[in-house]
Amino acid sequence: MANNKLRIGTRGSSLALTQANLVIDALKHVHPNLKEKSAIEIVVIKTTGDRIQSTLLSEVGGKGLFTKEIDEAMLNDRIDIGIHSMKDMPTILPDSIVFHAIMAREDARDAFISDKAISIEDLAQGSSIGTASLRRKSQLLSYRPDLTVLPIRGNIDTRLKKVKEGIIDATLLAYAGLKRLGKDKEIKQLIDTNVILPAVGQGALAATCRGDDAYANTVLNLLSEPTTTAAIIAERAMLAVLDGSCHTPIGGLAQPDGQGHLELRGLVALPDGTKTAEVTMTAPITKAEDLGKSVGENLLMKAGPDILKFLEEGKPIFVRPHPEAE
User: Do the beta carbons of residue 23 and residue 31 sit within 8 Å?
Assistant: First the structure.
């Protein structure tokens, strides 16, 4: 660390800063030395994903656009730790960077926002829903093929404004982000995961650091939450088999049963929702990675050629949380 100060890199959005401060508060709680006023510094980094607002991520390189500049700052020793929404984490990280799944996971469900209906089911035929997510689009159209899905980007406030101005009839946002920003009063419906399966990692936070930074890894290990970590390992193992990116509608949610087992549901679909494949499997929580791989492999077998052509070629190396975080 430079000058004995822990430098935490984050994007500059309201949600990113709120999440960074949640992590800082948690670090101060478990690490007394970090309670000193000058012990931690937030370094705001503007990412490519923040700069490009007029184009869908699937068209310009995927969700890694939200992490690339933070990774570069870390490798150039400008920051010690990066804080991210887990669902923004790409499948592959630079070789010298590791990540930790930190803190307890928030509710992973998507939330329905509208001034014209109280639920997805209540929307009038032909209503418009704005989303940039192919995962949400495909599942929405599978459930309500009469709806019109419009591509929109922007932060939470931008999307809420588009609903209030009537530009779109409704939108879907992650409940976790709305809750962390104190905007959960905007929610009309929390969507059952049998209707829309969340994104891999949704509701969880990720912290990255250099693999050889013993202090940063030790500090982050203090925030490890075992069941959250196991769930993330399973979901990302599935994603690695499927080679998931923003080009492919993929959903996944691993949930511990409180008795030592983990259930993982995975889904792949065509963007227009006309075909979907879903697999659910259970395994001991200690076999989280194997569970994820098995669900991914079974999804590939079940998907069929129409869905498989939307899966990118190649199997990337699975990037797992730092081993000490398990």
Answer: no
